[in-house]
Amino acid sequence: MVLQIQPPTQPEVIYPDSDGQPVANNTIQFGWIVEIKQNIEWLFADDPNVFVAGDLFWYPVEGRNKIVNAPDVMVVLGRPKGVGVARRRHRLCYQQWKEEEVAPQVVFEILSPSNTQTEMDKKLLFYDRYGVEEYYIYDPAQNNLHGWLRSEDGLDVIPLMEDWVSPRLKIRFAPLSEGLQLYRPDGERFLTYTEISRNAEQERQRAEQERQRAEQAEQARRDAIPRLLQMDLSIEQIAQALGLSVEEVRSLAQE
Question: What confidence tens digit (pLDDT) does each residue in 164-186 have?
Answer without folding.
Answer: 999 999 999 998 888 999 999 99
